[in-house]
């Protein structure tokens, strides 16, 4: 698995500021921006500046902010620091801001020197607010313009009535908590409410109708029934997740995944879902499938919504069938969501069509995984045909044997063949050659798993987009 996220030293939290003293050094427009953000929190905003913008003067006159008309010197700031929850440094003098920031940090008071993340101990994200709903976007100070762009996009998609929905949910929360003590069931009730007509009703201010809908869901009974969702996650690139997969990934209580499901994909699973790695190593296919089946059943019977997340499509060399059979036998309800299989993903991202009117009227998917005796025992006479494309899953380890068998059974030694390593991912590599060259190319280029072999004349029809 490749690490996909850069480290960041910034940790987002929501800070309660009501009644807390917040000091703002500076009285210009930059300070005014921050004061505007702070006032709605109910903080006691204290400005340290000999002069104020008209906007700030107005806020002071209204009693929403307080001012000490002094220069923001070390001495004056020191006098006011004790007991402050936060400090904003917004003087026009960057050096002074840096000095004052060091002073605050020496007293362990969180400080933000505006536009100078390198000397700040906290930074202010770009904010989108709809009542109690707040979305904060941060780039860790790296690209404020990008953060503002993203915020603009979020603004566009956040429904205007979201604050009403949040208020409705907050209002009903206490009552629901007493009626339904189990938090997992409560979550499901809310999900049903939001997925149905409840959300739109509450957003448009039809509180009574929204309440009726909530009561209706409650009266439906909320027996905690578990189920298993067998979901294909595609070949690795999150762009290739289906909408259904994404939604179930967001709703699951727990997720059982194997090694084809990388961190980029897992990133889309609900944060609180329990993650269980049940990876099968390439050379260790004997890992007990029964153990996985039993775990799926145990969790579902305990009421969990269990996501069984598989690379590619669950029904193509994914043992999805076996898992479902055991669920059926145990009487556990399930859903199956297909995924883009490695063949489709790799072919598309490598520019190799799987069928072609001129040369490939059929396409077979075969496994290159050996039997216990180390041989590839397949119906070669139906596979080694010139008129079809052969896609080999798990074909890397026995690539020599594979190419040799195909030649033995009638394909020419110079028959086109390709291998796609880490298909669809940014690290994708494609090697093209022939049945007689491919094994050596694989060895020389140190191709590693996952890799998919494509054999047939379609490889000659490989298309690459002209660079833009
Ligand atoms: N159910 C999966 C296949 C599981 S078998 C699917 O439908 O794709 C595992 C094999 O799939 C690997 O050995 C490799 O041959 C292939 N594979 C899966 N993801 C791949 C990827 N991103 N690039 C290349 N091959 C991949």
Automatic annotation (TrEMBL):
Keyword NAD appears in the UniProt entry: yes
Domain called Siroheme synthase central: residue spans: 130-156
Catalysed reactions, as listed in the record: precorrin-2 + NAD(+) = sirohydrochlorin + NADH + 2 H(+)
Sirohaem synthase dimerisation domain boundaries: 162-218
Listed pathway(s): Porphyrin-containing compound metabolism; siroheme biosynthesis; precorrin-2 from uroporphyrinogen III: step 1/1; Porphyrin-containing compound metabolism; siroheme biosynthesis; sirohydrochlorin from precorrin-2: step 1/1; Cofactor biosynthesis; adenosylcobalamin biosynthesis; precorrin-2 from uroporphyrinogen III: step 1/1
Active site as annotated: 258 (proton acceptor), 280 (proton donor)
EC number(s) recorded for this UniProt protein: 4.99.1.4, 2.1.1.107
GO molecular function: NAD binding; precorrin-2 dehydrogenase activity; sirohydrochlorin ferrochelatase activity; uroporphyrin-III C-methyltransferase activity
Keyword S-adenosyl-L-methionine found: yes
Gene Ontology terms: biological process: cobalamin biosynthetic process; methylation; siroheme biosynthetic process
All residue ranges annotated as the Tetrapyrrole methylase domain in the record: 228-438
Residue spans crossing the bilayer: none
Keywords of the record: Cobalamin biosynthesis, Lyase, Methyltransferase, Multifunctional enzyme, NAD, Oxidoreductase, Porphyrin biosynthesis, S-adenosyl-L-methionine, Transferase
NCBIfam families, per the entry: cobA_cysG_Cterm, cysG_Nterm, PRK06136.1, PRK10637.1
Family: Belongs to the precorrin methyltransferase family.
Record's protein name: Uroporphyrin-III C-methyltransferase / precorrin-2 dehydrogenase / sirohydrochlorin ferrochelatase
Originating species: Acetobacter ghanensis
